[in-house]
Amino acid sequence: MAAAVTISLAELIRLKAEARGFKLSPHHPQNSLLAGRYASRLRGRGLDFAELRGYRPGDDIRSIDWKATARRGRTQIRVYEEERERPVYLAVDQRKGMFFGSHRAMKSVAAAEAAALAAWKVLAGGDRVGGWVFGDHDFRYFRAKRGQSSILQLLNTVAEENQKLTLKSDADSDQGLNAMLADAERQLTHDGLFILISDLVGADEETGERLTRIARHNNVLMVTVYDPLGIQINGMPGMWMDVGSEQKPVPTDAGFPGRLRKEFAKEVSQWQLLFRNLNIPMLPLSTDRSVVDQVREALGAQHG
After folding, report:
1. Would you tell me how many other CB atoms lie within 10 Å of the CB of residue 48?
2. From 72-81, 154-163, 269-278, the region with the lowest mean pLDDT
């Protein structure tokens, strides 16, 4: 089956009906990718359980946790605190390097689908959503707002940038990612959820440093988009590949596929270590499967 090359705004809008069966909130079932990842400072709205502590004179006896009291041998109080608003920021990669796909969709299309699912889910939860759509040379920033109109503006830009991608586009894929992250550092304050949807091509030491600073005051979810064929391709005469801003012939020797897989595994290992140290969950998103199914499997909840 040929890969979907581009995606339209109408298709991103239709994904609104699929934005269910997963959660982006702090409360997840044990098998969810985000279970236990959120800091206690990250809240939604209303009242949420904060901690158990010993009874103090003046405490409301209705807050006594009788099971915990029996278990610990002294009176325990359930403490609740007011939940706060949590804006969600999406960073959607639409660089030239994302214009690759072997089966179901291009990486750029899968990233757009993931962004749409997240945006519609945030809308349903009543939180604000904003973010960045970034290409090789520049980006568009959208302030976090509530309401469908703001989401449509964001998704329309995703669709426009997606449809501009061609194999002939002349760009340096190493620049846009860090430029976007630099702006994200300036715009983000604290207690938000920052979702970066990218293949991380061109990511370097600066990328890690900027993500580290963002993660100090915000929760971060890394959605890494990849294509299975892209890590096991065999070189054939006449094939070319992008290396930074240059195009070079794909090696045709027998050892090339093995070297490619080894280098890919090395990069993945390095990023996994960084994300683990920063307590950043990593959601691998393959282009050869339904994005809806993968998101539900990783962030799944029985209801929602």
Report:
1. 15
2. 269-278
Residue for token pair 């915000």? 218
Q: How confident is the model at residue 57 (pLDDT cuts 50, 70, 90)?
A: confident
Residue among 158, 200, 155 nearest 176 (CA): 200
Q: Decide: helix, strand or coil at residue 38.
A: coil
Domains and CATH numbers, the chain: 9-29+87-299 (3.40.50.410), 46-83 (no CATH)
pLDDT digits (tens, 9 = 90+) for 1-24: 456 899 999 999 999 999 999 988
Q: Give the whole-angstrom CA distance, residue 110 versus residue 5.
A: 10
C-alpha dihedral sign at 114, 115, 118, 123: negative
Specify which residues 77 forms β-bridges with.
53, 64
The residues facing 302 across adjacent strands are none
CA distance linking residue 208 with residue 210, whole number of Å: 6
* Stretch 25-38: mean pLDDT: 51
Per-residue pLDDT tens digits for 243-280: 444 555 444 555 655 565 565 556 666 666 778 777 88
For 269, the token pair is 């290992």
> For the chain, how many helices (H) and strands (E)?
8, 10
Q: What separation, in Å, do the N-terminal and C-terminal C-alpha atoms of the chain show?
A: 32
Which parts of the chain fold into alpha helices (H)? Answer: 9-14, 66-72, 107-125, 148-164, 176-187, 205-217, 256-277, 291-299
CB-based contact 117:92 (threshold 8 Å): no
DSSP 272-285: HHHHHHTT--EEEE
Q: Strand pairing partners for 24?
A: none
CA separation for the pair 107, 90 (Å, rounded): 16
Summarize the confidence of residues 142-151 as an average pLDDT: 96
